[in-house]
Amino acid sequence: MNKEIRVVFMGTPDFSVPVLEMLIENYQVVGIVSQPDKPIGRSGKMSTSPVKEVALKCNIPLYQPAKVRKEYEEILKLFPDIIVTCAYGQIIPKEMLDYPKYGCINVHASLLPKHRGGAPIHRAIIEGDSTSGVTIMKMGLGMDDGDIIRQAEVPIEDTDTAETLFDKLSMLGRDLLKSTLPDIISGNVEYIAQKEEEATFSYNIKPEDEKIDFTKTRREIYNQIRGLNSFPVAYTMLDGKRMKVWFAQIGKEKYYSDYGKIVGIEKNGICVSTKDGEIILTEIQPEGKKKMFARDYLNGYPNKEELMGKRFE
To answer: Distance (Å, rounded) from C-alpha 256 to C-alpha 274?
Structure first.
């Protein structure tokens, strides 16, 4: 614990909260910066970020600049010794990077230089990675291109979703930062430049990334569904209506000349043809309804043969 060190924290989602809480417990957090509130849903009600909720609860000064690169002066008036960012969502200007005595440190949810960008957890699962991790890095002017300080790795299990991996990496990031900060402050760390030739980019998920393409392999579809669970959730279309797919199982290998068709009804799900066999949709959410097991959805069809041959578009 070092309450003499003045910290400004910058973050927004749930992922950032364990890191922030650790900093509040061990250092003097003099300010918190989060993204501006945004309207959600049809009601237009303004959302409050999880990081903002912590700031309000702990009575710590909160800043929500629309563009931090133009609205940073008030933050620097807090005289931070170090700035820590974690899933903040904006590029930090040079004036802020150069100010703190101990620099600007970022907690990034990948093993850099792989998966730079805003969706490293989603993309790691979608792309079929076997491992992920957290990098503590010194921030640079580019996107996640600063020097590496420490890293920690975890396996990606075959049943992991974006949500479960978020939870694992959030705790890992908290613990890795806690053990690394004393060495940053004492100067007992080595800063290692990233190898640019090994860099890959994981940009934010776009609407077109959410739709399932049944011309892909079973594994590719399975990874996509896991990688988008529990937000924003993969989907397909059946009878002109949107159906979200929360989870699936890899079915048997088989050749089909036509993809996206319902080719079987099993106890736990709906079998759909893909490039190299069948994917079994096990947890779904029909348009206008709540998430449900596919078996419960199937109970609504007394004659399940009606579904056979229907196509997901």
So the answer is: 7
